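<instruction>
Derive structure tokens from the sequence
<entry> Chain with its tokenised backbone below:
===
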Amino acid sequence: MHSLNDKVSVIMPIYNSEKFLKDSINSVLHQTYQNLEIIVIDDGSTDNSLKILQKYSDKITVIHQENKGLADALNVGIKNMNGKWFKWFSPDDILYSDAIEILVNEAKKLPENTIIYSNWELIDNVGKKIRDFFESNYNELNIFEYNVRLLDGQQINVNTTLIPASLFEKGCLIQNLEDPVAIDYDFFLRAGMLYDTKFYLISKSLVQYRIHSLQLSHKNIIKTLSYLLKIRKNIMSKLDDADKKHYLQHLSLYKKNKSISKKTLEFGLKLTQNFLPNEITDKLLVFYVNYIRNNR
């Protein structure tokens, strides 16, 4: 993998994504920033996704493989990319036309070991805007303080990010996990805690994030939330005892000093997880998780 000037590699892992695929690809092709490559990994789709991709064969690189899962598809894309920056993008979502230009311009002002992300808009199945989503702005925090927020559950919408390819060269890789929905959180936590990566928010919406019934990230969310605890323990185990103790002390203090409203929301989330059946809780949990994220 060789970096080339300021090229951005947009990696799109897809599996049976025909419904929104065309709109998503077109949003990347119509970027004001043109120094980019688009690599789509078709992970064994059985619908018309591959036929749609073939219509773009002169503009994008298509890699077809048997179904091996999200992490494997992403890593195939990473192995074949040539950009200085990596942009993971899902085939459900829409990039604003100036999104990559804004991300790159900001990246040039910041240290190389910085992951940039942005606010976003939530849209429904037909592309209608539901609401704006404003991420908590922690730009003034140092790496340690931000990592404490990550340990507490701070989430980042991976589709808004611009990630330096140098992270992969250092060994910060995307892991193949039991729960694929947690892959991005695992990567961000590793990047911050084990590779001294800085995170920086652009306080502007650059992506339209689509929520729909077939979305992997909104299926069995109870299982995913529980799995995040396993991820945290695994990454913490890689720290020396002094660093681990330091993080745990500050995490405990951070939790203790939260406002009553935030504590109440999180308590409600735990009650929902523990006492309501899965078929009832999914939509309620999505609301709770997003609302808590928006108020950290």
Observations:
- Residues 60 and 256 are 49 Å apart (CA to CA).
- Residues 8-222 form a domain with the Spore Coat Polysaccharide Biosynthesis Protein SpsA; Chain A fold (CATH 3.90.550.10).
- The chain has one domain: 8-222.
- The first helix runs from residue 18 to 29.
